[in-house]
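Hi W.,

Here's what went into the run:
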Amino acid sequence: MNTVNLEINGKAVTATEDMTVLQAARDAGFTIPTLCYHEALTPFGGCRLCQVEITSGGRTRLATSCTYKVEEGLIVTTDSEPVIRARKIVMEMLLARCPNVPLIQDMARDFGIEKPRLKKIKDENCILCGMCVRMCAERMGVSAISFVGRGIHRKIDTPFQVQSNVCRTCGACASVCPTGAITIEDITSNVPVPIPSEFDTVLGTRHPIYVPFPQAIPNVPTIDKDTCIHFLTDQCGVCESVCKVGAINYEQEDEILELEVGSIILAPGFKPYDPNYIEGDYGYNRMPNVVTSLEFERVLSASGPYQGQVMRPSDGRHPEKVAWIQCVGSRKAEICKDYCSSVCCMYATKQAIIAREHDARIHPTIFNMDIRAFGKGFERYYVSAQEKFGVKYIQAMPSPMVRELGNGNLLLEYMNEDGQGKTAEEFDMIVLSIGLEPSEHTKELAKTFSIELDDFGFCKIPELEPNIASSPGIYVSGAFSAPMDIPESVMNASSAAFLASRDITEARGTLVTEREYPPERDVSDEEPRVGVFVCRCGSNIARVVDVPGVAEYAKTLPNVVYAEENIYTCSTDTQIKMAKIIEEHGLNRVVVASCSPRTHEPLFQDTCREAGLNKYLFEMANIRDQCSWVHATHMPEATAKSKDLVRMSVSRVCMLEPLHESPSPITKNGLVIGGGAAGMNSALGLAAQGFETVLVERESELGGNLRHIYYTNEKESDPQVLLKSLIERVQNEPRLTVYTGAEVKGFSGYVGNYHSTIRTSIGEDVQVDHGIVILATGAVEYKPEGEYLYGESENVMTQHELEERIATNGIDAGELKSVVMIQCVGSREPEHNYCSRVCCTAAIKNAIKLKDANPDVNIYVLYRDMRTYAMKELYYQEARKKGVLFIRYEPERKPDVSQADGKLKVKIFDPVLDDEVSIPADKLILSTAIRPQPDAAEFSSKLKLPLTADGFYMEAHMKLRPLDFVNEGMYLCGLAHSPKFISESLSQAQGAASRAVTILSQPHLMSGGVVSVVNQGDCVACLTCVRVCPFNVPKINEDGVAEIEPAACQGCGICASACPCNAISVQHYRDEQIMAKSAVLCS
Amino acid sequence: MIVGERKPFDEITGMLNGYKKVLILGCGTCVSVCMAGGAKEVAVLASQLRMDSGIQEKGVEIGEETIQRQCDREYIEPIVEMAKTYDVVLSMACGAGVQLLSDMLVPTPVLPALNTSFIGICEEEGVWAERCRGCGDCMLGITGGICPVARCAKTLFNGPCGGSVNGICEVSKDTPCAWQLVYDRLKALGKLESLEEIQPIRDWGPSSSGIPRGVYREDMAGVAVESEGSSK
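Here's what came out:
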């Protein structure tokens, strides 16, 4: 297309010949107000606000810029006095017509008009811009509305002023109306049906073109073909017209990609259970105030449909009495959902607490069968929900027949906990704690990959070979194998990644291409030469902030030698241009005023490097998040703040100095501490990935607790076979060096460079250098000396001891008449406030064994909550079917055990019978706790690792980094982390190996850059830095001053802020660099 | 270590009232370590005073300096001339430092910015506890390393008093009973029998209740005098 040269406000502008003056002026960065212009519609010249002065052929006049096409040699003035005067008169007239429309009021105020001089003509909302009419006619092809009447009677209406039957209720007219004058009900009797938002469940709505959810990857809009007018009628296409970068492509089709891969991980996740009428839905779908837990999650979310206010859907009232009903779609054999969904007890507890935190008037009640708070730290959370937040737990399942009262409240009926009678209780809102089921397409997936599924559609994996599907090379992670919580999913995913990468170890790194950069320019002797790049971010920033103004302002700042604005500073072509400008103008400092450094700093730093500039000579001003987004309604102030931020960034960038990162070598060996199931599996994992590893076990034999486990609930699993195979593989693995009867005596170093001293069984000290550490020191079974006659009667034993006797024929089940098992011995008590996770399942395992051997034996399990989560619930069911009796007890009324004439007797209060029961017992089996290693405190301080309140090792993040320690290069797995099953230990061990390999497989680690440095002359060795560092990096060295190893420093800056002598500073964030910003802010 | 604590800001501004040129002088030893009077604290107080001066339009000029120790002449000497150019010196040292500084800066007045709290230890970051009263007659050897002078509210030498409940002092429920600690420690050391020995009434002569105390090391003091003499 031909280009045209014209002059706007004295600036030479090039435009294409089909452009209007308005488009050319806006592209050149000039602001022209409009009310009737829309990129997707034919220009109309209706509002007259866009008037500019046009000089063409020697004649100057006013013209509406939206309708005036550009011409060669045209001279345009957008801000001359006659232009302003003309616009002002138009504005006064608009204000006289629409005195109560906020947009008109605001615009008038910008022109300095508070009150119109003209008499108020009418009190209207409509300014007759005709955007709605044009939108309906031109884009929707419907023409349901048009202008009718003349003069002051002119208005927008339907033909014959009756409700239109051609209107599709698409709402396009209302969406473009600048003043909110359109109501769909005036146009048609058809009722618009909002599109429910999948993310906000059914509580919110979305558009046909939408970003699926805030964290979507990729975070770009997608078009819903089923509701998009363009796909339904071939009309509209507005999005294509307004998208400045031409990203809309209606022709895009699904593509089939063929990839050659060495291994596959399946992680299709789960689907939330959908409550329905047939299966008992507690009125869901029919009663608006019955919601699922996922919907309630959105209610609680600040970005949710109610902006985080706890409101109920029927009337927006704040509910006070809220009931959660557990096990909706779980633990229910009659609907083929026999399994426990594992996560609902805790998410209901979390929601109850958060709801209370949002609104203290809320009284949460959680109806449940058992509260399964079996995860790490969960028991404490559950206890705090009751004690701190007043959450009420009622052990009863209400009837699914819910009655809705006239005010929207809901009446629930449930059996009283004492078994005596029932209660009808009114609630404002009911939340259904829905379970997890396999996602929809898993059956097809299973067929495609020829893998087996279980009865419920979850992927079948062998208990003792976690993550391994029934087809070779195919691995499974997350809730596809069974319902699981976030930490389990994360560990499990690392484990699957381990297996998948183990198969293709040889190919590691073969597809990596190294990026090459030009040599770095030495700018140390140069005066600062700053370049400032201000971003419009399309209209994201420019809509609110006067971007050209900010760029012009930047030019006036000291040391700034170049400033410009860009539509998208992050686009590839702008990046290339930026690098060129840096070189051409000899810039030695760069400021980008755009969005968040969190997402874009690395990109811009990379551009600096491309231009031969050290990447630390760069600074960002976030004028999007901090200006245009948060001050969208305060445009002049947002611009002023943007200028402040740019001034601050320019000031700081001048103070910055180049920093260099240097490669530091990695010792490519591993150290695994602990030779139990987890430790052996981790060590084998590291070896399988090609890394020499030292395995240290302090006992004389490998195996740890696995040596005492003889069977599991699964018939096919044999822990002793696993034990033998692990030991055999460890002993035959040439990359492993094993020390048994040995201990880690000394430990020092940091990621990539650890040094340990191992004292071997013969008392020799061996020095080992290693790049990573995996801690798998295990835990021990609690021996309850003095409790329930343990140690006094030979008939009282722990579950482990019973298992050992059953396995070695040390007990004759046929002789037994009555066996009592007591759960939670040493667990879930104030001083040991955690659940030991495995004991419920262990009790059931042994009870079934005894019942299978002698169906006549009476087995009583005295429990508090049966925590047989996920598929373990099936064994609980089996035990009940086989006649094992379960009696609940409260911690306040623990069972009473006595012995007379060698006969044991257990007395227990049964809440259902409301009476005390006395049970004679041949054997009393105690389900005792798993305790941390007795020397955990001492050993953890040697390794500088933190412990939890219960004495287990503390990971970097409970949910998101369950396998890592805060100290880089250190990982944990197995019982040292918390009580768990063998399968979980194995999976965790593989996961830890996978995490460790992320370090060991790197060619080297980069150290330096943003790290703390000590000016040792000022150091008084006060130890403050040593104490405050969360990563244990600072040390007082042999010279008696603090020393910080750059390779280990994480650059958090805590030491620098705490140092009482100002002897420590964080590079790139030195005091003077920070002060440079505040100094110019205040000046 | 001597532990100090900065005085309340209002008290400091009250003392400085009327002075136009103030030098804040930090001390790089004990009070740096206990985060009360080192370079960082000097900078923080200076910044606070500048803001105060700005707000109240006092027009006060603030100088900052930190020296190794204010309880030794040799460290003070290099800054004497500079310090005397100020109207007043605000010392962030302990009481000993403030006094020596005052002696050396006459006629420039020296004011204390800290309260000297005690001789103690750092229990954890930000937590300090008293351990020694400087009584001049140490008996830690008998009490298993736990001082009844500093840590028993009643300074008993034959404790406990009988008011201790579950190892907590009856005077303050936040304070462990020192004699319970002594008992536990001696038990751990296997020296409980030393408790059976009755401690006689103590001679408080060497303690701080009388005239100011001094220590005279004949050998060292002599050396200093001799070398001074010989250099002359």
